[in-house]
TrEMBL record:
CDD domains cross-referenced by the UniProt entry: metallo-hydrolase-like_MBL-fold
Name of the protein described by the UniProt record: MBL fold metallo-hydrolase
Protein's organism: Ohtaekwangia kribbensis
Residue span, Metallo-beta-lactamase domain: 13-195
Organism phylogeny: Bacteria, Pseudomonadati, Bacteroidota, Cytophagia, Cytophagales
Entry-linked InterPro entries: MBL_Glyoxalase_II, Metallo-B-lactamas, RibonucZ/Hydroxyglut_hydro
Amino acid sequence: MLQLQSFVFNPLQENTYVLFDETKECVIIDPGCYEREEQYDLADFIETNQLKVVKLLNTHGHVDHVLGNAFVKETYKTKLYIHEQDAATLKAVKVYAPHYGFFQYQEAEPDIYLKEGEAVTFGNQSLDVLFVPGHAPGHIAFYHAASKTLIGGDVLFYNSIGRTDLPGGNYDTLIDSIHQKLFTLPDDVTVYPGHGPETTIGYEKKTNPFCAL
């Protein structure tokens, strides 16, 4: 059975997720941990629960979602997975991170590029890769069909959507991603976004002021 643990890290209040199951294998999605205390919180959870980190996943390459990439790669000797179209987004972080106050940011190179239709496996679990650009050019989401769980990154939020005024963002593309890739999922799918509280596909289809059907 899939289990999920979330953390809220860094001043931008980013949601980091650890997914694991009875095998104790886990994946870390979008580690936003920057301060030592945040890194300790993540590591303490993994150690306390005797988890084995087998993959590091990025939904996209914006600074608040990748601050802990180097820490996770170095600590757990794991590979970094991201969509190839967001490699440039990730690469740019080292240039602008100081402008956000992240002067100690450490760059981590991607190892494996994911594509839509592929599956990310760990333990007894499988996550479907969905290509959902608009907030970032290579943004992806991870869908666990068995538990109807979506790790959505910065695409769809509780009564909101990801911003599209950053480099590579496009409002029409984002709305199309939501309508074509997310709103075609079952209404009772729980969306765990990159910021803020979880929501459901059905609720957002009815109430979201930006993209409701």
